[in-house]
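Pasting as-is:
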Amino acid sequence: MAAIRMARERARTEVTAEILRAARDQLAEHGAAGLSLRAVARELGMVSSALYRYFPSRDELLTALILEAYGSLADAGAAAQARVGRAEHRRRWLVTCRAVRRWALAHPHEYALIYGSPVPGYLAPKETIEPAARVMLLFLDVVRDAGAAQALIAGPAQGRPPLASRLEAQLRSVTDEFAADVPELVLAQMFYGFSQLLGMVSLELYGHFVGSLDPTEPFFDYAMSTTVDLIGLTAS
């Protein structure tokens, strides 16, 4: 009985992987808004009713694709960081930025799914929050380690404006949940750097540097290094 159960679970895992592969093809061809369970079933030679046993709705299939994309991106960033010494805070940040860019260029449609325009009619469930946070936590770990090592230059004394009270309250709610040991100002700088990264990647991915800063890699490296300076991450 155990062997039969394991064979069924293995078969289900394989079919699920095939469904997700076909769904990624549909995503590339039609975009997230055009994703159709019936079209995925046709590509796989399945009847729709059989596919519904794996994903009862389009939204559940979208959620699976989103979870997969966040996981793949976070794994790419973590792998890049693992090749750098933990005390090399500045370099850790930069290699993670480059890993995010490489992943986005290799997976443009998955990037658009998680960081592009919201899919009409789709409301992401709570189960996507933690996987989404994995990506940002890679950067949060860098500033946390830098702060603990006193290798982070931060604060109004270095020309940075003080936090508005409303922003400080917002950041405090984040630190309470995810980073109780990180000062609000440091967290604000981390969000700033992460926003700069996604903005740069999005501009490149959607063709806004064509005819000017294309190829974009030299400008990307310049922008990320400048951002690191503003955040206050020093070399090890």
